[in-house]
Amino acid sequence: MAKLLHFFGTIFILLSLVVFPIIGKKDENSFEISINKEFMSLKREKLSHFKFYFHDILSGTKPTSIMIVPPQKNTPKTGFGMVNMIDNALTLGPKLSSKIIGRAQGFYGLSALSELSLLMIMNFNFIEGKYNGSSLAVLGRNSIVEIVREMPVIGGSGLFRFARGYVQARTISLNVTTKDAIVQYDVYVLHY
Ligand SMILES: *[C@@H]1O[C@H](CO)[C@@H](O)[C@H](O)[C@H]1NC(C)=O
Ligand SMILES: *[C@@H]1O[C@H](CO)[C@@H](O)[C@H](O)[C@H]1NC(C)=O
In the record, which residues are listed under signal peptide (predicted)? Predict the structure, then answer.
């Protein structure tokens, strides 16, 4: 009898080891349960560096960056208040004709009264290789007169779930007439 109890006891312990990490601990009065990282296939966090080019095209018949709010009247020369909605191509090389690996979708606005500085809120939506369908969310301050601007990566979807990190943006060409710009983005991101 004792042997039998011991046997079922062992079975029960083994089962709990398998089942509890999967279903987690459940509190009847809660809408939250803790679950195991491994169960969600989140094994090892890694650090990746992505490099691509962002094309802010305001001119021509197919602009991908469109002013949706003009700068307010009687505001300083910094264009304070202007907002652009973007669906900009992200390419492997610096030329717009090079391979498109995703798009930057969102908007930016001139958010400083006495300097040229943007608030940028956008998603990098990737369409290439294993990252096809995954996206990174970027939200930050872009002081466009500086050579290197840093903005936080605040999250992501798909392969970028739980992502965090930062981007460095460098303008590599700007047409002063059309305001079209090509910006190099170096993205450093921790993800699973
Ligand atoms: C990316 O995914 C979409 C939707 O699943 C698919 O139609 C497209 O062909 C994929 N692109 C590449 C380059 O794999
Ligand atoms: C800027 O754009 C205008 C209009 O497309 C073009 O004529 C001019 O050559 C461009 N300037 C530079 C430096 O590329």
Answer: 1-24
